[in-house]
Amino acid sequence: MAERILKNEFKALSQEKWVNVELQDDDIFNWTIALIVINPDSLYYGGYFLANMKFPSNYPYSPPEFQFTRPLYHPNIYQDGKLCISILHAPGDDEMSGELAAERWSPAQRVESVLLSIISLLDDAETSSPANVDAGVMLRKDPEGFRKRVQQDVDVSRKDIPEGFVMPTHESTTKAPEKEIEDPNFWVDSGSEDGFGGSDTDMEEEDEEQEQETEEDD
Q1: Secondary-structure breakdown of the chain: helix, strand, coil percentages, each rounded to the nearest 5
Q2: How far apart are CA 92 and CA 76, in angstroms?
């Protein structure tokens, strides 16, 4: 069951532009993932953040493991690249952490929801109980310094972009609305069966016929 579900999820994510997924040694339970931030308002925009993701044999009843290859300087990311995020914690309430069951992993979750939660976490850090205390302090007290530190991580991450890989951008992933093309002949249809439209010549001929009938009546 786990293998079938993971194959379907892998196939679906392979079509997305904000993530690049590969299998490690053709093992469906071990993925190499690159998160690509395409939100231009994000501090992490343009980054290519490599990570490893491992799935248990009883997936989706137990959560996967996630670890960045290059640890990011972030309040909720440990120095080894692992995350402190509720969605990757085992199901059930945790009185010690204060996390509710609804915040933690459940069999209804999928890889996509995990990855989107991680991307969201990057710009919405939880600083009350940080995994990286120094990063949490800098974010609160020196946001500009934190921004510069993040930019360093973004620049370093781009070294992992595979040769020939085209990085998606906000512009390339936003489809421009199709412009309506007005048909200049829409209101001019001499062959219209519903009586709308008609050529100027037809209208002139009708006027002449009406004038002739008026003269004959006189």
Answers
A1: 35, 15, 50
A2: 21
Query: Could you tell me the domains of the chain?
Result: 2-160 (3.10.110.10)
The mean pLDDT value of the chain amounts to 83
pLDDT for res 198: 47
pLDDT at 99: 56
- The CA distance from 111 to 16, in Å, is 13
Range 185-213 average pLDDT: 48
Q: What is the pLDDT of residue 59?
A: 96
CA 27 to chain centre: 25
Going by pLDDT thresholds of 50, 70 and 90, the confidence category of residue 22 is: very high
Where in the sequence numbering do the catalytic residues fall? 84
Tokens of 9: 């999820």
Which of these, 86, 66, 78, lies nearest to 21 by C-alpha position? 66
Residue 44's pLDDT is: 97
Q: Is 217 exposed, middle or buried (0-12, 13-18, 19+ CB in 10 A)?
A: exposed
The Cα–Cα gap between 202 and 199 comes to 5
Question: Cα(3)–Cα(30) distance, rounded to whole angstroms?
Answer: 11
Phi, psi of 86 (to 5 degrees): -60, -35
What 3 state SS string does 123-167 have?
HCCCCCCCCCHHHHHHHHHCHHHHHHHHHHHHHHHHHHCCCCCCC
Higher pLDDT, 183 or 116: 116
